[in-house]
Amino acid sequence: MPDPGAEGHAHAHGHLCARPAPVAGLARPGLHALGLDSARDSYVYVPDDDLAGHPAPLLVMLHGAGGDARHGMGLLRDVADAYGVIVLAPASRGATWDVIGDRYGADVHTLDRALAWVFERYAVDAGRVAIGGFSDGATYALSLGIGNGELFTHMLAFSPGFVAPAEQQGAPAIFISHGTDDGVLPIRACSRRIVPMLMRAGYAVEYHEFTGGHTIPGEIAHEAVEWFLDPRDPLEEFA
């Protein structure tokens, strides 16, 4: 049994404890509520493809401010279905993610529970585990991804605002996109500052600017998932 005290300490520092493990049995396709919270539950979507017998990539998608798990699920569900990727969409406890308002805590706990739920039921490819998000969700994905590099191999950040990692762990590959006409999180103050900072810290960053506002264009969504599933090591190209 995990030590609740140790887990609470880890969550307060932005650390996730759940890890992929061998799983026996058949993966049930479709959209499923995890049943972790009656008011703001988390969801997992498993493509119709037969995933039994081989581990599948996992993409954790985080909603923007004011959203919920269904919003997070909708960001890339159609694209993920086309590529055979399991999508996990947790919900923040409040209007946005904890560290954006104050500090790590309840949302890390929720995400850890959601990850453990998925890892206990589905065979996940430990070499293809990504965390991503849109807007505040992108900010949170970058922050948690940097601090949990032993779990996440990739990060997908669509229109992030800033980065607030507790510490740097490992070197996950990073995909960032941002609209040049974004009026919510202006590109000059956000991604055009974030990307050089991450590259100076040694991260391989795939950066895409597009003409448009605070959104995820369809072609960007496809490019991000294809990049995530590319068998080449992005760190080798970066080197």
- Tell me the β content: 15-25%
How many individual helices?
A: 8
Uncertain runs: none
Supply Rg: 16 Å
What's the shape?
A: globular
As laid out across the biggest beta sheet, the strand order is 1-2-4-3-5-6-7-8
Average per-residue pLDDT, rounded, comes to 90
Reported CATH architecture: 3-Layer(aba) Sandwich
CATH class: Alpha Beta
Query: In the residues, how many domains can be counted?
Result: 1
What structural category characterises the helix and strand content? alpha/beta
CATH topology: Rossmann fold
Taken in chain order, the helices and strands follow as: HEEEHEHHEHEEHEHH
How would you describe the overall organization of this protein?
The chain is 35% helix and 20% strand. It is an alpha/beta fold and 239 residues long. The protein has a single domain, classed as 3-Layer(aba) Sandwich (Rossmann fold), CATH 3.40.50. The longest helix has 16 residues, at 106-121. The termini are far apart.
